[in-house]
């Protein structure tokens, strides 16, 4: 990975190539705001026995935070943007968390024929998504498509952490495994209408997951098995 700018957030060392930085991303990192609410939720809920599946790795910050609690071998993280994979692996290594499993691809509620899907990269890596209409300047690529249920079953995840830029509206139709006890979900209400938001809550409720106020804040919402 080419040398970039270095940051430290809550003891986690992060490096990002200058080509991947935007002013907003740099400000969030410099001010310590980057993924702060998600990190707080992980610290509030994770126990040493948990196994974590993360959707949307970004720079690997939350994967490191999770691995500090549960151990790197108990963390699997999935990132669709291939340009971020070497960044993630370098940041994991810099924090002695090489045992985290890193997958390059997008996650869908159900597998698709051919095992691939289209993904759209944006100048700000944290805004990339499955939706072509999100940004007319987005660059289309083909990525591996993983099924959510299959990943949860294969990893034996007890905790799901997901920031999928609006794709959450398509999640949770398929049955979730009994091993899953907690979901930490970033909502994106600016990307869909209130009814779509209601349906997310309804589908989770139908599978036995209720709203958990502990560490839920703003668009970061925790759901626990009840």
From TrEMBL:
Coiled coil segments of this chain = none
Question: Which Pfam families does the record associate with it?
Answer: PCMT (PF01135)
Recorded hits in SUPFAM superfamilies, A to Z, give: S-adenosyl-L-methionine-dependent methyltransferases
Top-level taxon of the source organism = Bacteria
- Name recorded for this polypeptide: Methyltransferase, FkbM family
